[in-house]
Amino acid sequence: MIGKGQLLQDKVIFITGASSGIGAAAASVFAREGAAVVLAARRKERLSAVVAELDDKGFDASYVVTDLTRAQDVREAVDFVVERHGRLDGAFNNAGIGGDQAPLHRMEDDVYDSIIDTNVRGVWNCLRAEINAMLGNGGGSIVNNSSVGGLVAIPAAAPYVASKHAVVGFTRAAADEYARQGIRVNAVAPGSTRSEITADWYDRNPGLEDSIHAITPQGRTAAPEEIAEAAAWLLSDRASYVTGVVMPVDGGFVNR
């Protein structure tokens, strides 16, 4: 019955970008809510450390080193989930990068290419592999990590903004296309959140965090766990009639 027990009880959840920040927080939150979690990222040492911490707490956690920009890598990662657990119930496509900030006319091609390759192609590769696995299992739930930059403009970050708008487009298109096959696809759109991306931006732009706080109704930066909690609900059966939604988790930023 909906509403009973843990949010993700007995679910098998795949998490990308899980070696730090929101992804690592999601691994902990999802495991605490009853899920078996499989973590994916490029950094083996960081993944191993996160999984070891979860293992010490008695959670079912494993990892697979994956380059999300390579379709074959992603297919093999999802195959690993299915081989280990017999199915894939949910996925949190969290991995992404911010890249350098600069006015659009001064942005370098390599910055654009890197952001689009990770934030757009990475989600594209994940959606195809995950949906394919879920179609063979009667359905599932996917949450993509977009950004407030997928809903409104952010100065000096045109490639990032474009990439996160693309994630919103993928979310809505996939939700529409696979709803009748039992697959729900939603997105979270975090505002200022403690992560490697924001730490890098704030370090290189003194005063930027204070400026964002000044125009955020709650007046603060989110903890990664706060984004993970929202993703957990969207992945859960308690959100069974929710699909195609892009949920701001931003302290009221886009509603100001």
Automatic annotation (TrEMBL):
Keyword set, alphabetical order: NAD, Oxidoreductase
Matching InterPro entries: KR_dom (IPR057326), NAD(P)-bd_dom_sf (IPR036291), Sc_DH/Rdtase_CS (IPR020904), SDR_fam (IPR002347)
Coiled-coil regions, chain positions: none
Annotated ranges, domain Ketoreductase: 11-204
Membership in a protein family: Belongs to the short-chain dehydrogenases/reductases (SDR) family.
This protein's name: SDR family oxidoreductase
Native organism: Streptomyces enissocaesilis
The organism's taxonomic lineage, starting at the top: Bacteria, Bacillati, Actinomycetota, Actinomycetes, Kitasatosporales
